[in-house]
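note to self: dont lose this again. the chain is below, predicted strucutre after it. 629 aa total, dont forget to put it in the shared folder this time
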Amino acid sequence: MKKTLFALLCSTLLLSQEMDLDALLNKIEKKTDLSSKTKLENGGISTIYTRDDINRMQARNLNDILKSTYPFGYNENRYGLSDPYSIGTNQPNMSSSIRVFIDNQEITSGMYGSGIILYGDMDINFVDHIEIYSGNPTYEYSTEPTFILIKLYSKDVKRDAGTKLSYGIGNYLDSHLYAYNSQALENNWSYFNYVAQTDDKRQQHKSDTTELSRDKRGIHIFSSFHNDNNRFIVDAIKQKRDSFINESLDATPTSATLDNELLHIGYDGNRNNFRYLLSYDYFHTESKMSDDVVPNPYINYPFASLSANSSSHIFSSELKYDYLTHDNKLVVGLKYRYKYYGYDKLEKNALATPNIEKKGQSVSTLFIENQYSLEHNSIFTLGLSYSQVKNEKSIQDDNLLMYRVGHTYTTNEWVIKSIYSHIELTLDPYLVGSDGVYITPGKKKITKQDTIMENIVYEKVNNKYELTLSYLSSKDQLMPNLSNGLLENSAKDIDIYSTIFIWTNYYNDVDKLYMTIGYNQVNNTPIVDSFKQYTATLRSLNTYKKYDIFNEILISKDSTDYKLYYDYSLGIIYHVTGDFTLSLKGTNIFDSAKTSQYSRIDPRTFQAKTPLTISPIDQKVVCTMEYLF
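---
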């Protein structure tokens, strides 16, 4: 298989056509979204949120965007952290195949595999626009296996010169203060500096008589220093969070806190046909939980108290080379990432875990991707990625082979994309050596996912229609064992069928109506044989004189309870002057958004109790004022 794919990639270099590839790619980009300068033409199926979308939606945090995004939406785990694939068990992160980038640099975690756990609900006032790619997108960016790629593009001096202040207060007396400054320097250099201070008090929920909290307080600093060919990024986050359920067996902790620190320092650049990157990520967590239970002395469980401090250091590097001819674009690259991670302290029921050792994991990746213009309106895409994952002090070493084949056909009114991809996933670092804690004992098989996607876009005058059909088959997927909640390779292949229809109507140059209807079906999970979900979105963005008006309703219904959920949001921005605005936004106004289930076990009998059903989306009203100097 490797030789065949490599031969196909190389053979396309020997072919020639009269159509200029760049011209065709630009034509496709212009027809499919508004972010033509940054959109990844080889990225797969895309969802784009332009600068105008983000501003008029008053999207302050990334979850304001993710909750309506195909195909995954937004969810939170038992720790109150962003985890779209969470199913309510005690694993800290089930969504490591969702990767988050700022510009060209990934924000990652050494233990948990992805920065989505912090960035899923992070403030995004420093972001210009957002691009989300699904279905094993291009290998150009992520070092590790990726099914969803989220790219946040930071603001810069070209559109945001000067200083801006933003202050908001909500109905729970929550508040945020954002500020940024951007200036042009000599020799085409510029900088963008951003700072945010948030006191995010959230809607409270009860488990029996216990009040559960997901409040968080934090500081976020982002800085970018760049010109056309070089970019330096520093991103720093410090948070103090109430950690919701944490590892309380019956979801009634007497106290639960989680402190997080993240630091990212990175540089990426390009010269001639070469692109290169060096980055460092530091991630530190301190988790404390207490519960009014009596532990069994023989198994030291359940937890009456739990204290865990962990840290990770991640070093990433990559070198890519672009070879471009009249009708062919070839990208080859080498990537290397090393993670040093582990617990600094781990106490269960006041008993310290002896002989804690830090571990290392290395990921070495070689990839090659080729795009070839078959005709004047047709592009064939082929990609191959091979990774070696080596874990110190563990037998869990894996070799991952991934590949994708795609074809894009375009006319004046149509864009048709067909994609087949194969992705392989191994254990996140926190799972390596966690036998009996998060995972069943023994070496685990590689998870292998095969996906077929068809994306059809028709656009004429002021209407755009888009239909996406997909089928995913996952072999040896890690799923929880129903008897103990520990992850193990599923005995059955899990099949996922998805479809979404999107209609966008542009009233004029600034106003638009956006509507979606979606269906998902998941077969052969350990919990249910078949899970079905129906979703719909209706969103309007309008401007009238000095007012921007935002309306959105998200409708959801699934086979768990066949209850109809709807999340209605309304926002109004008043432009007092060109530099001063006042805004008001209500989210989940009727407190009827889709809920998530969290398991509960009686600590005395170890029998299952009725699960908690709590929405990750709060009912909230926020008033904000912004001033641009």
